[in-house]
Fold each of these.
Amino acid sequence: DVVMTQSPLSLPVTLGQPASISCRSSQSLLYSDGSTYLNWFQQRPGQSPRRLIYKVSNRGSGVPDRFSGSGSGTDFTLKISRVEAEDVGVYYCMQGTHWPPITFGQGTRLEIK
Amino acid sequence: QAQLVESGGGVVQPGRSLRLSCEASGFTFSTSGMNWVRQAPGKGLEWVAAIWYDGSNKYYRDSVKGRFTISRDNSKNTLYLQMNSLRAEDTAVYFCAREWLGGMDIWGQGTTVTVSS
C-alpha cells in the first residue's frame, strides 16, 4: 500500500499569513498515462470533506485561487496564500494512482493563532 | 446541483448486519464510479470500497473484504454498502463519494454507524 505522510500535523497560522502543508508518498504517484493522481481535501469542523485540488495542481470548482497545489513524484505541497477564518479545518492529501487501496494522509489541522 | 444523500446508519450489535444507501441527484450517476469512505470518531479518512460505473468491478480494503459488499442500482441512482459481521472497529461516519479524475469530487453528508453491545 502507498503510505501518505503529511507534515505538519498541526498548523497554527495568523490571519492573512500564508500556510503550507507537505505530503509525501512512499512511491511515485506518476501513473503510466502521464498523470499524477494526487488530491487535496478540506474538512471544516462538522462538515464532509471537500475536494480542493486534483491531479496535483488543478483547483476544483468554486475553490478560491488562494489555494494552490504543486509537486511531482513523491513530494507535494498545498499552499494557502493568505489564510482566512473560513480555512480552519483539517486538510488531507489522497493518492488515486496505486489502488486499491486508495490512501489518505493523516490530516493536518489548521487553526488560527 | 449535484448531491449525494446517505442513509441507513444506526446502532448495531457486533456480528450483526446493516445496509447503507446513497442516493444521487444532479449528475449522471450511471456513468460515474463511486466510493465509500469512512471516518472513525476523531480520526482521519479511510477508503472502504469502490465500484465502477456499471458495477462490473468492485474493490475493497483488506479489513472489510468478505464482510462488506458494494453494489449499485443505476435505475434508482443509488449506491449501497451491505455490511455483515460488523465489528467495533467499523464504527464510523460513512461517506459516499463520486470518483472523478483520480479523486472524489462530490461527497455526501455521511451516515453514522455505531457497533456496540
Amino acid sequence: GQNIDQPTEMTATEGAIVQINCTYQTSGFNGLFWYQQHAGEAPTFLSYNVLDGLEEKGRFSSFLSRSKGYSYLLLKELQMKDSASYLCAARDSNYQLIWGAGTKLIIKP
Amino acid sequence: IAGITQAPTSQILAAGRRMTLRCTQDMRHNAMYWYRQDLGLGLRLIHYSNTAGTTGKGEVPDGYSVSRANTDDFPLTLASAVPSQTSVYFCASSVDRENSPLHFGNGTRLTVT
C-alpha cells in the first residue's frame, strides 16, 4: 500500500534549526510537496521536489532522495510564527497526492 | 484577491439532511479537489476534477457527490449526512494535476449530529 511517515510532534527552540523527516512509499513517484498549516487554517504550499537534492527558499530548505524514499524539511532561525503543522505529500504514478498526518512543530522561547 | 472561497465557514447539520458545500476559485485553475481532514489522519481525497465537465472519485467518495459545470465552481454535496462525515472539508485547486502545487480554501468545519 501507499504510505507516508512523519513524526507526530517535535519541539524546538526559537532561533535554532529543526529538521522534519518524511519517508514515503508510493506506486511510482511524481514529486514531493511540503505544506505548512497553522491551527484552524488552510495548508499553504512551502516546497516541491521532484529531483534528488536540496531546494532552498530563504529560511526553509527541502531535500529529496528518491532512491531512499526520503525527504526532509529544514527550518533555520526558528521564529515563534513557525509553530504549525508541517504536511508531507508524495505524488504517485496516477498523480494522486498521498498525504502524511503532519508533524506538529512547537517552538519554545 | 485571487484565491479560493469556501462557504459556509462552519455548519451544524442534523443527520439525514442534505448539504452542499460551495467552492469557487478565480485563478482559472483546471484541476479542483475536495479533501477531508480528521485529527490524526492525513488529508483524504473525496473527489477531484481534472477540468470542467469531468470528475473522478478519490480515496473516500462514498456519501458524497460533486459536479463541475464550469471552471470556477466545484460544489460538494452530502446527500444524507451521517455523524462520520463530521470533519473539516478543504477545497483546493491547481493549474494541472501533474506538476503544480495545490492552493487551498479556508475550509468548512462540518458537524453532523
